[in-house]
């Protein structure tokens, strides 16, 4: 399961960006050639994130297609999988571009009101009542 190694890399990037603040969700963009199983990534991330700022956080996976350029007809297309032939001319001389990237696109932090000891919550209602 290579998703565990990917989850560890994503977690490291999440922790750097979060800078100690609790994380609710991470959005990851990955190329189709990485062949990431969303369910396996969720499980791996949950294990890797246990006890960290991302404990309990969800991972949203966006899969980017690969870009193919045919050497015979020069047509460019995208594919969500590995294609053996050009859809336009049937040629097999295909140049592959992309599809192997892994990018932490964004993180969503836990709302400040939900963080224990948050002084902003105390200032929201000067009377101290909730």
Detail the poorly predicted runs: 119-130
Mean pLDDT across residues: 87
- Total beta-strand segments: 6
* Count of discrete alpha- or pi-helical segments spanning 4 or more residues: 3
The description of the largest β-sheet is:
3 strands, mixed
- Indicate the proportion of strand residues: 25-35%
> Termini, distance in Å?
47 Å
Please compute the radius of gyration using only Cα atoms. Answer: 21 Å
Give the helix proportion (percent range). 25-40%
Q: How would you describe this protein?
A:
With 130 residues, this protein is α+β, with helices and mostly antiparallel strands. It is 26% helix and 28% strand. The strands form two sheets. It has a three-stranded mixed sheet with strand order 2-1-6, with helices on one face. Strands 4-3-5 form a three-stranded antiparallel sheet, with no helix packed on it. The radius of gyration is 21 Å and the shape is elongated.
């Amino acid at each position: 399961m290579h998703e565990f190694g990917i989850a560890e890399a994503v977690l490291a990037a999440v922790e750097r960006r979060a800078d100690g603040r609790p994380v609710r969700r991470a959005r990851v963009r990955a190329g189709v050639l990485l062949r990431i199983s969303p369910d396996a990534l969720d499980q791996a991330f949950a294990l890797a994130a246990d006890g960290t700022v991302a404990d309990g956080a969800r991972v949203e996976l966006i899969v980017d297609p690969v870009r193919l350029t045919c050497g015979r007809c020069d047509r460019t297309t995208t594919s969500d999988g590995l294609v053996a032939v050009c859809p336009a001319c049937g040629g097999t001389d295909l140049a592959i571009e992309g599809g192997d990237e892994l990018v932490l696109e964004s993180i969503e932090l836990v709302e400040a009101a939900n963080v224990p000891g948050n002084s902003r919550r105390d200032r929201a209602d000067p009377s101290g009542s909730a």
